[in-house]
Amino acid sequence: MSDLPAALNPDDHWACANEDQKRVAGFLESLLKPLDELVDGGASINNVAALFVSQSAAGKLDSRMRHLMTLVGWETVSVPTIKRALSAYRKEGVTGLLPKYKGRVRQDYGWEVRAVALYNLPGKPGYADVAFKLIQEGFEDVTESRVARYLKAMPATLGKFSPARIGPHLHKLRRQKFQRRSLEEVLVGGEYTQATATPLTAMSATPTRASLTAPS
Predict the structure, then answer these.
(1) Of 49, 68, 87, 154, which residue is most buried, by most CB within 10 angstroms?
(2) Is residue 41 classed exposed, middle or buried when 0-12, 13-18 and 19+ CB atoms within 10 A define those classes?
């Protein structure tokens, strides 16, 4: 089970984040780097945050900084927001800029890693199969509903259509974006040539009246 990805570790916030969250955190890092350099130079976080907010309000930020603010969703920004973001960045790096989950923390039952390994066997076991196997192996607090909720929250590489369950080729095909076909450049009647016979072909394949009558 050592080959399971770091996303199974709830303490690895970067691995657990989705691509949109990582992208926004990267934009925010680019925004905060110049401020971080000012703090390294001896300025206080409070003064740096106040300076940034005042320049933003006065329209004195350069085009790159304004663009980064748009990318992270900041139309306006306050001093406390900059202070929190800058402090988190200096303490945890870009990982500290990921959104923090503030809901109820899920209880760890101890069978989660094993459940993912069982679910990703080539035989495509279901949630009930995984739960039954976990109980057989001696794990406690196992129910089909708990197993199902946990496995449904897995990323695509470990979920119902993971490469291990359906094969890498089909997994790749399922993740491709839908591309609508265009018929603008198809000649009139051209889209029917492969599916149906042309009128001329249909006529030549139809028996004539003479061929249906017995010779006299």
Answers:
(1) 49
(2) exposed
